[in-house]
Every structure is written in structure tokens, then in C-alpha cells.
């Protein structure tokens, strides 16, 4: 979280300017909150260049609820099949929820190489009449990130889980049918999920799905069909403004993210094989730098010594092992530099 | 929101004690957050006297998601029918979601008297093999509150929407199969919903319902099946501690709420018919005081003059009209006294 955002939230905690009360106390129907909500939406729209053909929703339930909502809205009752590119852990969870709603098939699955790569256009074929093509733009656990949208026939809506790389770089929204991101990586606090979707697409959904999952309810009511997560939206709006006004937009953010991640990948590549990147070079993530060390003992030593240097949360997921450094937008260059310095030191002492 | 809670949140915004970072920055798997979550659960358990036979969950999606989740877990696929007591607007919304999951029937509906009353035991009959009996303990819009749990056969789980009177008084949890409350009335900020349920009851649910709706996922993972709404849980924990330590528990809270609400009902009753309470006397709510004035003109005048006196959010819902004063736990006596004073003044000037 950018420190300037935390300071503003702190300053306004007892009294939201103009409200005479805390944001935690006013109703979601209060016109001050409605303005905050619209401002958050509009800042996202301007950052991403979202056209009026698309809705921007704020929902609860995390990315996980979207696994079900997408299939309930776009697959249930269509008689079509949904096609998934499985490039890591989150895609696998998503398809298992989709299977409850209809036919969902993995048309690409990188499990044989433990999700270290992404497909090229020749590695899969999307049916012209698929309900949608689903992929995860950045697999958080494996650290593999698509550099461009996967190939997809014009007749098929492209759906993306952008949870862990939303707002890390410009995004061509008009290539998508729907994309979504839980906020807790790059966009704000846990408790709100942004869903961007082509309005015409969700009009066709079956209204007999659970009401909270039915996107049209949220779209028709400007994310106030029921009480939205007011505080999380308020903070997300401030983070979006920070990106626009302090950072200077998503192209600028991407530049910073490239510098930050390159500095770590360089250390990996120049370590003479001591650090081994998990993701293939061409699909390395700007957000999650995953690598292994020569042994479990060295991995444990790395994590414990890093912790003593106030470098926390570096343990890789058990499915990948090793180290995962998550360097989201708000992680300052100094934080990445400190980690790079530690990696170089650790190599010189143990390599 | 109690001011002491807001001040603590403000003090801790940049740095959560022991964390070296803001609560908005740490992972939901960080042991400091896990402690906060368990502490919030345990404080609720001690306030309400919840036994180990019950789970206490923190979910997203608001009370509205529970309308669907309850029916998906307890009705879908059972071949049974769910029975509903309709005593106001929220129960009606709940049954419309349940109908998507199976047979759901209103065995009592007070619509003919515009939801001004509650049923006695002789006004409805619950089937011995109903999937559950559902009611709303306090209908927020109409201001009707059950004084005791409705009669229900021992074979039928009792389910309650306690959103707008949770923690306003002691609650005999062991009479319930399941009860839930969105936090934004009495328990905390918008963005978290507390669900308390008999563990054995939800074991039987169909695992093919959407994963986020399947209670067992949340129960088996201590509300961390996916990322929970960390900030809302953190504030809810502080509100629960305030109730226990500063107020002195739920019996004490009820005493205060009775004093606050009685003072307003007294003005209504002694107004010579100028103020007419919407709810019948025996089912008046401690939380939402609803009443009408002699004309629409006087109602509009009341709301506008009250606003000028910094008494806000008094407009009744269009289905009831008139005035609704919501006097939740955190509303201090002085706030209620100011409203009472204004009501007396307004009567003397317009009565
Ligand atoms: C890419 C991706 N998808 C989905 C999720 C699940 O999000 P949530 O915990 O909000 O359901 C995560 C969380 O880490 C993620 O990184
Ligand atoms: C009794 C009751 N039930 C349900 C709801 C809906 O809650 P939410 O907006 O969190 O879905 C409310 C909200 O005001 C309520 O008062
Ligand atoms: Mg809109
Ligand atoms: Mg509400
Ligand atoms: Mg537990
Ligand atoms: Mg997460």
C-alpha cells in the first residue's frame, strides 16, 4: 500500500471530509459514499481506458467467487463448452468451479512441466463456439505472466483472472469479454474485487442463478444492488489516484515494474546456476519472481536469514518450492534493492 | 462505530502493533492477522455464549449472499421444502432467492397489514420435515422485532437473518440451526457477514454448489478458504471487544438499547396521535423506530428541519413512508436525546 494512501486514510478515519462522520459510519447510500464509489470507478476507467461498452463492478467474495460467477453467467444453460488454458494453480481452481455449471475443458495444461511455461498459439485450439476462453494473466504461485493476450477467435469472449497483475501495466480491455481482479495484490485492501465486462455479454445470463452471482444485478445498480464493501472501495479509489497522479499512469508503472523485476532476474541469471528461475525466461512475471536454490537446506537458510533482515514472506508455495518474491506495485525500489543485495550476499557466502 | 474503536484503528493504520506494516499490507496468512481473526471469533463466542457445536464464520457478499447460501446448503437436493415467516422486506428478498434452489413457501405473510405485526404461535404451522424455518429477527425497514424465537419443531432447524439486531441483546444461539448478520448495522463495517451455524447441519450440504457458497469450505478452513475481508474483521473484533469490555456484555447493551428506544416510543405514544408508530406496540424494534406523521407535507418538513439540526438519515423506506430512526448500538444516548428533543419541539410547533 503506498504510504501516502495510508496517511490519507489515517487522517480521514474519524471524519471523512464533508461528512461529519467516519466513512465506516455513513451509509452506502449517502451521497458522499456514492461519489467515492463513482470516483473509484472513473479513475479505473481512465487508467485503463475502459469504454462505455464495458461495465466496471465492485464485488465481494474475492477472486474465488468469480470462478463460480463467470461460469454461472456465461456457461450455465448455454449448451456450449467453456475452454480453459491451465498455466498454474489458480486456473485449476477456476476450472473446478466451472465444471459445476456446465462443460468446461482444459485445452492446454502445463502440468507436465510443473507450470513453468505458457502456450504459444500453436499449442491449443479454441472452438469457434466456445462459451468463453479463460486464462489467468499472471499465475501468482508459479510466477508465469502472459506478455500478450492469448489468441482467441473473435466469436469467443476472452475471460481473464488478472488478480495478481491488474494495474501493473496497460491492459487492452477491448480484447476482453470479462476480466477481474481481487484487489489485495495491486489495487487495494482485501474485501473488494473489480470486474470489468462487456455489457452485452452478461445480458444473456440466466436470471435463476444466485442473485449475488448474477452480474446484471450489480451492473444495473452501479455496484449498489446490496451493500458494497465501502471501506475497501474507498481505499482502492485512493490507490488508483496514486497510480494516475503520483506514478503517472500504467505505462509509467510498467517501466518501474520492469526495472524492479529485471534487477532480480539479473541476479538469478548471473548466479552461475545457484539461483534457478522457475518460469521460463520468456514468460517471467513482473510481479512474482520465483526461483529455487540448490538444496532444501539452503532454501531454509535463505528464508531464515532474509527474515532476520526484515525481508519477509519469501517462502515459495509448496507446489513450486524455493522462493517467491512478490514485488507488487506498492513495493518501492528500495525494497527490491534490499532483496537483491541480500541475494547477492547470500550467493557469495553460500555459492 | 464507537469513537474509541475509530481512534484505535486510526492509531494503528500505518503500523499494526508487532507487524512493522499496516494491517492493509500484511497477508491474511500472516500469523498476526490469523490471531486477529481468531480473537474476533472468540470475542463473539464469549459475548454470545456460542458452544463448540457451532461454527462462527466470516464471509463476504453481505446478508444478500446468505439468502442464496442458506438455500443452496440446506434446501438444494433435499427434496424437502423450506418454510418462511414473512414479516417485512428482507424476508421477502430471502424467499425469492430460496425459490431458485428448491421449494420455498411462506407459511405466514403479514403483507395485508403492511408488515406492522409479527405472528403468534397460532398464526402458522411448521411442517415437521421442513428443510428449515426461516425468519428475520428484526425487519429493518418496518421496525418489527421478535421478542423471542418463533415456535419451531425440534426436528426443524431454525434460521435467522439477524443483520439488524445482532449483538443488540443476548441471543440463545442453541435454539438455532443457523443465524447470520451483515456487520454494517451493529457489528462493524460493511464488507463482512458473520454466520453462526450448527456444524452437523452443514455437513450434509451438496458439495456441487458454488464453492464460495458451500459453508463447509469456510468452516474447514477457519474462514480462510480464500482471502477473507481482513480490515472489516479487524474492526469487527474491536467492536466486539468494546461491547464486552466497555459496555459490559449483551445484557448491559440491551438495557441501554431499551432506554434509548423507550424514550422515543414514549414521545410517539404521548403525542396524541400526531406521531403514529408503524409497528404494533408488542413487536416494536429496539433498533429501528418507525412512525408516520399526519401528512406528507409534515413528513417532508420534519426531515428537512431535522437535517438542519444535524439529525440525518431519517427518511422512512418508501414502502412504509414516514420516518425511520435507526438507533444501533453505537448511537450514543445523547444522539437519541437530541432526536427526542427535536420530535417534542416539532410536535409543539405543528401538532
Ligand atoms: C491469480 C489469483 N487468482 C485468484 C486468487 C484468489 O483470490 P481470493 O483469495 O480473493 O479469492 C488469487 C489469490 O491469491 C490469485 O493470486
Ligand atoms: C435485515 C437485513 N437483511 C439483509 C440486509 C441486506 O444486507 P446486505 O446489503 O449486506 O446484503 C439488510 C441490509 O440493510 C438488512 O437490514
Ligand atoms: Mg456505472
Ligand atoms: Mg445495507
Ligand atoms: Mg474456528
Ligand atoms: Mg489471496
TrEMBL record, chains A, B:
Its EC number is 2.6.1.52. Keywords: Amino-acid biosynthesis, Aminotransferase, Cytoplasm, Pyridoxal phosphate, Pyridoxine biosynthesis, Serine biosynthesis, Transferase. Pyridoxal 5'-phosphate binds at residues 63-64, 90, 140, 161, 184, 226-227. Residues 2-339 form the Aminotransferase class V domain. Its main location: cytoplasm. Binds 1 pyridoxal phosphate per subunit. Gene3D superfamilies: Aspartate Aminotransferase, domain 1, Type I PLP-dependent aspartate aminotransferase-like (Major domain). L-glutamate binds at residue 29. InterPro entries: Aminotrans_V_dom, Aminotrans_V_PyrdxlP_BS, Pser_aminoTfrase, PyrdxlP-dep_Trfase, PyrdxlP-dep_Trfase_major, PyrdxlP-dep_Trfase_small. Its cofactor is pyridoxal 5'-phosphate. It comes from the Bacteria. Coiled coil: none annotated. It is found in: Cytoplasm. It holds the Pfam family Aminotran_5. It catalyses: O-phospho-L-serine + 2-oxoglutarate = 3-phosphooxypyruvate + L-glutamate; 4-(phosphooxy)-L-threonine + 2-oxoglutarate = (R)-3-hydroxy-2-oxo-4-phosphooxybutanoate + L-glutamate. Pathway: Cofactor biosynthesis; pyridoxine 5'-phosphate biosynthesis; pyridoxine 5'-phosphate from D-erythrose 4-phosphate: step 3/5; Amino-acid biosynthesis; L-serine biosynthesis; L-serine from 3-phospho-D-glycerate: step 2/3. The modification N6-(pyridoxal phosphate)lysine is found at residue 185. One of its GO terms (molecular function) is O-phospho-L-serine:2-oxoglutarate aminotransferase activity. Catalyzes the reversible conversion of 3-phosphohydroxypyruvate to phosphoserine and of 3-hydroxy-2-oxo-4-phosphonooxybutanoate to phosphohydroxythreonine. Homodimer. Belongs to the class-V pyridoxal-phosphate-dependent aminotransferase family. SerC subfamily. This is Phosphoserine aminotransferase. The gene is serC.
Amino acid at each position: 500500500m503506498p504510504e501516502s494512501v495510508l496517511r490519507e486514510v489515517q487522517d480521514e478515519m474519524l471524519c471523512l471530509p464533508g461528512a461529519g462522520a467516519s466513512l465506516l459510519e455513513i451509509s452506502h447510500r449517502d451521497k458522499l459514499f456514492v461519489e467515492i464509489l463513482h470516483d473509484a470507478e472513473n479513475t479505473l476507467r481512465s487508467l485503463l481506458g475502459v469504454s462505455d461498452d464495458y461495465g466496471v463492478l465492485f464485488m465481494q467474495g474475492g477472486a474465488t467467487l468469480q470462478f463460480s460467477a463467470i461460469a454461472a453467467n456465461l456457461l450455465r444453460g448455454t449448451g456450449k463448452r467453456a475452454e480453459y488454458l491451465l498455466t498454474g494453480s489458480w486456473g485449476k481452481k477456476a476450472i473446478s468451479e466451472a465444471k459445476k455449471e456446465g462443460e468446461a475443458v482444459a485445452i492446454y495444461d502445463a502440468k507436465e512441466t510443473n507450470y513453468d511455461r505458457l502456450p504459444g498459439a500453436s499449442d491449443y485450439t479454441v472452438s469457434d463456439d466456445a462459451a468463453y476462453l479463460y486464462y489467468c494473466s499472471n499465475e501468482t504461485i508459479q510466477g508465469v505472466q502472459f506478455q500478450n493476450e492469448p489468441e482467441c477467435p473473435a466469436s469467443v469472449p476472452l475471460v481473464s483472472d488478472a488478480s495478481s497483475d491488474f494495474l501493473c501495466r496497460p491492459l487492452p480491455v477491448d480484447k476482453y469479454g470479462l476480466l477481474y481482479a481481487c484487489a489485495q495484490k495491486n489495487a487495494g485492501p482485501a474485501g473488494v474485487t473489480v470486474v470489468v465486462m462487456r455489457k452485452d455479454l452478461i445480458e444473456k445470463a440466466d436470471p435463476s442463478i444466485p442473485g449475488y452471482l448474477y452480474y446484471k444485478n450489480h451492473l444495473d445498480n452501479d455496484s449498489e444492488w446490496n451493500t458494497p464493501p465501502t471501506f475497501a472501495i474507498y481505499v482502492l479509489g485512493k490507490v488508483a489516484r496514486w497510480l494516475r497522479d503520483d506514478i503517472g499512469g500504467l505505462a509509467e508503472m510498467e517501466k518501474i515494474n520492469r526495472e524492479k523485476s529485471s534487477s532480480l532476474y539479473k541476479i538469478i541469471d548471473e548466479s552461475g546456476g545457484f539461483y534457478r528461475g522457475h518460469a521460463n525466461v520468456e514468460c517471467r512475471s513482473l510481479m512474482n519472481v520465483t526461483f529455487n536454490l540448490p538444496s532444501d537446506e539452503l532454501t531454509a537458510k535463505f528464508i531464515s536469514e532474509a527474515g532476520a533482515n526484515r525481508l519477509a514472506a519469501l517462502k515459495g508455495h509448496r507446489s513450486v518450492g524455493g522462493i517467491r518474491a512478490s514485488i507488487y506495485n506498492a513495493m518501492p525500489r528500495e525494497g527490491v534493492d534490499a532483496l537483491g543485495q541480500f541475494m547477492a550476499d547470500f550467493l557469495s557466502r553460500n555459492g
